[in-house]
Amino acid sequence: MIAGPRTCEFSDSQPTAWALGCAVRTRAPDRLPQYENFYYLVAQVNLNPLSNPIKRALARLVIRMSDRLSSRPDKNAVFKSLSQLHDRILKGKKDSGLLVPFDLQQGRFIIFSDQHKGCRDAADDFKSAADAYIDALQHYYDHGYTLINLGDCEELWENKPSAVMQYNNPPLQAEARFLQKKRYYRIFGNHDLEWYYVVPRRQFLQPLFGKKLRVYEGLVLQTQYNGNAHRIFLAHGHQGDKRSDGNAFSKWFVAAIWTPVQRFLDIHPDTLAASFDLVDAHNIIMYEWSVQLPRTLFISGHTHKPVFASLDHIDRLSKQLERAMADNDQNAITALQAELRRRQEEYAGKQFVKTMAFPTYFNTGCCCFSDGDITGIEIADGFVRLIKWSRKNNTATHRSVLEEAPLYYLFDQLQPGA
Questions:
Q1: How far is Cα 128 from Cα 407, in angstroms, rounded to an integer?
Q2: How far apart are CA 264 and CA 16, in angstroms?
Q3: Phi, psi at residue 219, to the nearest 5°?
Q4: By the 8 A CB rule, do 342 and 400 touch?
Q5: How far is CA 295 from CA 151, 320, 363, in A?
Q6: In whole angstroms, what is the distance from residue 324 CA to residue 319 CA?
Q7: How many angstroms separate the Cα of 53 from the Cα of each of 56, 67, 195, 320?
Q8: pTM here?
C-alpha cells in the first residue's frame, strides 16, 4: 500500500522501492535546480510478498529495459555532455564543479577513482584492495596532497548505502581527514550517482564527512605556464551514457528508481568496465574530445583501464618490453613479461590499436583490481605520474611509478589557445 505524499526521511531499507510522491524540499546551498527540489523520493512499496517467479519475471523485464539504455559510448553524446560540463565549470556554475587554481611546482594532488566500495562479500571488488588504499591515503595525507575522488567511490548499484557506510568506515574516515584539512574534492560517477542528491548525502555521507562536504560532477585545476592559463579537466567519464547521464529526470530515475530495484532483484548487468571492447572505444572517444581543448589535459576514470598521456598501460608495457629485448636486459624482460600477463588478464579482449598522437588524455585506472593493486594519477613537483600501490601477502604496501612526465613537457605539446 502506498502512502500519500509526505515529507519523509531517505530510506534504503530492504526490500523497498522508491517512487514519485514523497515531496522533499531541500534548502542546502548546493541544492539542485528548483524543479528537482520537490520530488526525490516517494513512500515505500513493500516488496516482501513477491514470489521468486515474479521477481525473476521482473528482473528479465528490467534487464531488457536496461539493454535499451546500455553503456555503449555514443561519440556525439559524449562530446556534447563533456563540453557542456566543461563550459559550465569555466562559467562559474559551482553546482557543476569548481575552478581550482594551483601552483605548477608546488601543487600536490592524488586522484583515485572507481573504488566501488562494497559490503565485504564475494561481490565486493574493493575488498582485496582496501588495505592498499588506506595505506596510500595515509602516505598522501602525511605528504600534504589534496585528494580528489573521481567517482564510483561506492558501489550503490549493488548495495544499500547504509551497508556500504557500515563496512567501509576505515577508508571513509581516511578520506574525511583530507576534508578536515580543506584538501578534498569528491566527484560522483554512475555507480554512486545517489550522492548527486542532497538528501542521501546528508543522511549517509554527512555523519562521516561533516557539513562541508560537496559532491560535484567535475573539476578544473588551473595553473600558469609561459604566461598562459593551462588547465586539467577532471570528470568521472560516464558523461554521454544514456543510462547514467541524461537530463535531470534520467539522473533522478537512475538514483531513485533503478538503483533500489536493481538491488532488490539482484540484477548485475555488465558495466562498461567489464566490456573490454567498449572500454577501448570509450577511452578513444574521450581522447578525441580532449584534443579539441586548447591548453587542457583531461583526466577521467570509469573504464578501470589506466591511460597515461593518451597511451594505455598495456601499450606502454609493450613498448618497454620491446626496448628491454633490444637491450637484452633479461631482468627487465622477465619482470615486464610477468606484468603484461597480469594486466592482460585484467584487460582480456583488447583489440584496438590506438593512434593517440597528442598527450591530452589520462585515466586513473581503478582501486579494485582483482589482485589487490590500485592505480591513480599524481600531480606533484611539476610532474604528472601514473602510480600503482600494491600490498601482497600482508607485506608492506609498495608504491610504484608506472609512468611520469613533466607538466611543462605536456603543456608544450598541447593545442594553443585562440
A1: 33
A2: 7
A3: -155, 145
A4: no
A5: 24, 28, 18
A6: 9
A7: 5, 21, 33, 54
A8: 0.73
Helices 169-180 + 130-142 axis angle, to 10: 20
Q: pLDDT in tens for each of the 418 residues of the chain?
A: 333 333 333 444 433 333 333 333 333 334 333 333 333 333 334 444 445 677 667 766 765 665 555 556 688 989 999 999 999 999 999 999 999 999 999 999 999 999 999 998 877 889 999 999 999 999 999 999 999 999 999 998 878 899 999 999 999 999 999 999 999 999 999 889 889 889 999 999 999 999 999 999 999 999 999 999 999 999 999 887 766 655 555 556 656 666 667 667 665 544 444 444 445 777 888 889 999 999 999 999 988 888 887 655 676 677 778 878 999 999 989 988 988 887 766 555 444 344 456 889 999 999 998 889 999 999 999 989 999 999 877 788 999 988 888 898 889 888 776 4
Of 98, 67, 414, 124, the C-alpha closest to 275 is 67
N-to-C CA span, the chain = 61
Positive/negative CA dihedral, 242, 244, 247, 251: positive
Type of residue found at 60? R
What is the spatial distance between Cα 121 and Cα 407, in angstroms, rounded to a whole number? 41
Place of cell 597511451: 311
**What is the SS3 assignment for 377?**
strand
Cis peptide before 15 (omega within 30 of 0): yes
